[in-house]
Amino acid sequence: MKNDSRLSRMLHVLIHMDQLAGAATSEQIAQMLSTNPVVVRRTLAGLREQGYVRSLKGPGGGWSLARKLEEISLADIHRALDSPRLFAISATVDHAGCLVEQAVNAALSSAFDEAEQALLARLDSISLADVARDFARRARRKSARP
User: Fold this and answer.
1) Does some domain include residue 101?
2) Closest alpha carbon to 66 in 43, 78, 48
3) Which whole-number Å values give the CA distances from 99 to 7, 104, 115, in the listed order?
4) Backbone angles phi, psi at 134, to 5 degrees
5) Which PANTHER family does its entry note (predicted)?
6) In the chain, how many domains are there?
């Protein structure tokens, strides 16, 4: 199963948007992510619907943040991306009548639900501003090295 990197990629884009003086075009963002501008527009449209970004058409147009980084959590963006699966592992349903499979699936489902709730709570506690501050610290350390 292929990993879903949309959350990571959109967080990356949003931090860059905050650093820009103006709007970023779909083409610029696509180049940053090594993808197609259509994919960028489709993905950012979902974020726009949730009020995290805005788009302007025409000369000087593009995508920009609609909220401050402090007002956006990592979980907010996860939800705006239609809550992609957090875990690649899952229970099997090959033998639905098998009592062993039922017991295994019940244990796994319970554990996955608890882990997902804990992860979402953690993502909810991290703002994009927290990530931007970490980026700034890393940039300062890198520039201070000889």
Assistant:
1) yes
2) 48
3) 37, 9, 24
4) -65, -40
5) HTH-TYPE TRANSCRIPTIONAL REGULATOR YWGB-RELATED, WINGED HELIX-TURN-HELIX TRANSCRIPTIONAL REGULATOR, RRF2 FAMILY
6) 1
Instruction: Write the DSSP symbol of residue 73.
Output: B
Q: Write the CATH number for 34.
A: 1.10.10.10
pLDDT given for residue 1 in this prediction: 54
How open is the CA angle 62-71-132, to the nearest 5 degrees?
75
Low-confidence ranges of the chain (pLDDT < 70): 1-2
pLDDT number for residue 122: 98
Chain centroid to Cα 82, Å, comes to 10
Cα–Cα dist 14/65, whole Å: 7
Q: Are 18 and 131 in contact (CB under 8 A)?
A: no
4/65 Cα distance (integer angstroms): 23
Average pLDDT, the chain: 92
> Within a domain: residue 1?
no
pLDDT digits (tens, 9 = 90+) for 109-146: 999 999 999 999 999 999 999 999 999 999 999 888 87
In whole angstroms, give the CA distance from residue 20 to residue 5.
23
Q: Which two tokens stand for residue 138?
A: 């890393």
